[in-house]
């Protein structure tokens, strides 16, 4: 037995007597532990036991098991690596394949400040994920007068040389390449002044001049004429130089031509990117499907560009009143190739409307002006739709450089898939007719359902909802972008 002082007991419960009181402490007697205390093996005893034959065998057995397990895991990892599906190599892409091209044909109409006004909107273009700005024409010329053509002089009412240099520097900092439109006779009449041979020589000199200034490329219209001249090989040679840190682009266009002729021009011209207005939802879906398939099967999609607006075509919203602008947007962004839009197409501006409307969308309209408020809300919705498509195309590999597979087409509808390796698959379906269409998209390599990623018909096809592919219904003037996962 031993005495223990309880100094922390509740003072009120302690019995305070003359014999036991000691500075507020109470002594109590507790029994001592009479059992043997375990101290374990000593160091010498452990060393003696560890050297016995039994423990040596156990240690060797554990060591062998450890190494066998390690070798087994290594072998399993090798087997998994060998039998795992190989990732498909990413195709070689240049800046004009990575996002949309944005055309500003009339700089003064875009902004009264000329190129300074264009520079002020570079942040806006970055938000829209613009990769290339097709600018101009900005050179001096009088309509139909070849002798006044000066392809290396900027119109004074548009900008100064300093304004141009500043625009190029700021655009490059934001990752936007600037392409100069060198359409010779852009005021009126034949773009080549009915003398393409003489103009081609001026084009060659102008390309050398402007590329040295820092432009990311040159745009030329109606290539079917200039590629027949003797100057064309020397023009091509300017763009084939390999000493540049960033490749410059030779971009051309053709309009209102058959798919066969577009393919011929692309083969003979050797341009980096050829824009065509072939895919037009106002035409038959079967015709579109044939034309797209023709170009896609014959050429790399990195050389294909799709444009449905411009100086000669007008804006997207003015192409056909029967086709909502968002259907055009979805078609261009999901086709295999580079989408090209004119300034204002992202909000549905019509030909003749001033781009200033785009910058006023954030300003509230008068509360009692219901029509203006409704129009503003619609344009904001169209712009958000455009931006979502642009984001998806830049982020999703299937949309960026995936394979194109035609699924369904009729006189007023079109459906196709975009596939890339082990990435999510995307399916575009659109109906520009006046009646509801039902598409049977079921096949052995398609799931029963797909997820809605973007739609013009939020009432019947809500975003993120699952829809059946066996009988996909699309209402009049509606389009939907679906996705489903890769399953091996």
From TrEMBL:
GO BP terms in the entry: carbohydrate metabolic process; L-alanine import across plasma membrane; L-leucine import across plasma membrane; phenylalanine transport
Q: Which Pfam families match?
A: Alpha-amylase, SLC3A2_N
Signal peptide extent? none
Where does the Solute carrier family 3 member 2 N-terminal domain start and stop, copy by copy? 32-102
One function term, GO molecular function aspect: aromatic amino acid transmembrane transporter activity
Transmembrane regions listed in the UniProt entry: 60-84
For this record, an example GO cellular component is: apical plasma membrane
Keyword Transmembrane set for record: yes
Keyword vocabulary terms for this entry:
Membrane, Transmembrane, Transmembrane helix
Ranges of residues in domain Glycosyl hydrolase family 13 catalytic: 115-202
Question: What PANTHER family does this protein map onto?
Answer: 4F2 CELL-SURFACE ANTIGEN HEAVY CHAIN, SOLUTE CARRIER FAMILY 3 (AMINO ACID TRANSPORTER HEAVY CHAIN), MEMBER 2A-RELATED
Q: What is this protein called?
A: 4F2 cell-surface antigen heavy chain-like protein
What organism is the protein native to? Labeo rohita (Indian major carp)
């Amino acid at each position: 037995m031993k005495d223990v002082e309880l100094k922390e007991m509740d003072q009120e419960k302690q019995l305070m007597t003359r014999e036991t009181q000691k500075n507020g402490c109470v002594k109590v007697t507790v029994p001592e532990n009479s059992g043997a205390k375990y101290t374990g093996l000593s160091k010498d005893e452990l060393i003696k036991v560890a050297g016995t034959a039994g423990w040596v065998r156990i240690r060797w057995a554990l060591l062998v098991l450890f190494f066998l397990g390690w070798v087994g895991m290594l072998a399993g990892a090798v087997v998994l690596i060998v039998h795992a599906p190989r990732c498909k190599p990413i195709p070689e892409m240049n800046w004009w394949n990575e996002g949309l091209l944005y055309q500003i044909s009339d700089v003064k109409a875009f902004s009264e400040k000329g190129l300074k006004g264009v520079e002020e909107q570079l942040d806006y273009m970055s938000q829209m994920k613009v990769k290339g700005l097709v600018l101009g024409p900005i050179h001096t010329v009088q309509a139909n007068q070849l002798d006044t053509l000066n392809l290396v002089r900027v119109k004074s009412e548009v900008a100064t040389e300093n304004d141009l240099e500043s625009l190029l520097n700021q655009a490059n900092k934001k990752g936007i390449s600037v392409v100069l439109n060198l359409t010779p006779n852009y005021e009126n009449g034949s773009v080549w002044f009915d003398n393409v041979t003489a103009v081609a020589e001026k084009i060659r000199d102008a390309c050398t001049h402007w590329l040295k200034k820092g432009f990311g490329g040159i745009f030329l219209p109606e290539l079917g004429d200039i590629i027949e001249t003797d100057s064309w090989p020397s023009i091509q040679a300017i763009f084939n130089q390999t000493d540049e840190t960033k490749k410059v682009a030779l971009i051309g266009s053709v309009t209102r031509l058959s798919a066969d002729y577009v393919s011929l021009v692309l083969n003979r011209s050797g341009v980096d990117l050829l824009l065509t207005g072939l895919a037009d939802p106002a035409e038959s879906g079967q015709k579109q499907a044939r034309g797209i398939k023709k170009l896609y099967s014959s050429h790399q999609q990195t050389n294909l560009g799709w444009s449905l607006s411009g100086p000669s075509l007008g804006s997207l919203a003015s192409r056909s009143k029967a086709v909502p602008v968002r259907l055009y947007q979805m078609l261009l962004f999901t086709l295999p190739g580079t989408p090209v839009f004119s300034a204002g197409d992202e909000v549905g501006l019509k030909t003749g409307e001033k781009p200033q409307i785009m910058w006023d969308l954030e300003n509230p309209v008068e509360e009692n002006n219901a029509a203006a408020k409704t129009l503003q809300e619609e344009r904001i919705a169209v712009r958000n739709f455009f931006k979502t498509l642009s984001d998806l195309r830049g982020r999703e590999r299937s949309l960026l450089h995936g394979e194109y597979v035609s699924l369904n087409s009729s006189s007023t509808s079109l459906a196709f898939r975009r596939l890339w390796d082990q990435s999510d698959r995307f399916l575009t379906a659109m109906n520009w007719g006046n009646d509801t269409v039902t598409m049977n998209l079921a096949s052995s390599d398609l799931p029963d359902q797909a997820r809605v990623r973007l739609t013009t018909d939020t009432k019947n096809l809500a975003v993120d909802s699952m829809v059946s592919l066996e009988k996909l219904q699309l209402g009049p003037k509606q389009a939907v972008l679906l996705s489903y996962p890769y399953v091996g």
